[in-house]
Amino acid sequence: MSSGKVVLGLLAGVAAGAVAGLLFAPAKGKDTRKKIAKKGKNYEKKLEKKFSKNIDMANKKFEKIKTEVTDFAKKNIYKSEQVAEQVAEQVAKQVKK
Question: Are 21 and 35 in contact (CB under 8 A)?
C-alpha cells in the first residue's frame, strides 16, 4: 500500500472520529474540544513516527543500493583495465612480428 493512501486513510479516520465525537459527546463543548485536540496530537505523533521510520528505511535502502552500484562499477572498471592491458600486450606482440 502506498504511503499516500495510508496518509489519506489516516486523515479520513481522524476526521470521522472528530465528527462522531462532536455528535455523540455527552460532555461540554469546551471539554470535547480539549479531548479532540489531545487525540489529534496523539495521531500527529504517531504519524510523525511512521514517517520517520519510513524515511529511515528509505535512507538505508538508498545507501545499500549506492554501495552495491559503487562496488559493481569498481569491479567492472578493474576488469576493463585488465582487458585493455591484454589487448595492449597482444598488439605489442603483433607489432614485434
Answer: yes
Show pLDDT as tens, one digit a residue, over the chain (97 residues). Answer: 577 778 778 788 888 887 777 677 676 778 877 887 888 888 889 889 988 999 999 999 999 999 999 999 888 888 888 888 888 888 787 877 6
Contact yes or no for 45/12 (Cβ under 8 A):
no
Output the furthest CA–CA distance in the chain (Å, rounded). 103
Which stretch of DSSP H or E encloses residue 96?
helix 29-96
Cβ pair 47, 7 in contact under 8 A: yes
Which residues are within 8 A (CB) of 21 and not within 5 positions of it... i.e. 6 or more apart? Answer: 32, 35, 36, 39
pTM score, whole prediction: 0.46
Q: Which three cell numbers stand for residue 91?
A: 598488439
